[in-house]
Design brief:
Layout (H helix, E strand, L loop, with lengths): L1 H20 L6 H36 L6 H10 L1
């Protein structure tokens, strides 16, 4: 349901941006051109942001790899 709200909000922002740039007149061909141009700008930006978040999540996940807690260290020392 949250995704639906996000998609409706994105469409509302796109439509309001179109209406503001064209002085509140609606033309199907200019709206189509506006959507195509906007998507060529928005899509790479969203992909870049998603890629950045993926890289940060991957680095955070693997930052603590091979680090023992104090309890694990003492168990490791006592097992030897």
């Amino acid at each position: 349901m949250k995704l639906l709200y996000i998609l409706v909000a994105v469409f509302a922002v796109l439509f309001s941006g179109y209406m503001l740039t064209n002085d509140f007149t609606f033309n199907h061909t200019s709206f189509s051109n506006y959507l195509i141009n906007t998507l060529f700008i928005v899509l790479p930006c969203c992909l870049g942001i998603a890629g950045l978040f993926a890289i940060l999540a991957y680095r955070k996940k693997h930052a603590d790899k091979d680090v023992m807690t104090i309890r694990q260290y003492y168990q490791y020392r006592s097992a030897r």
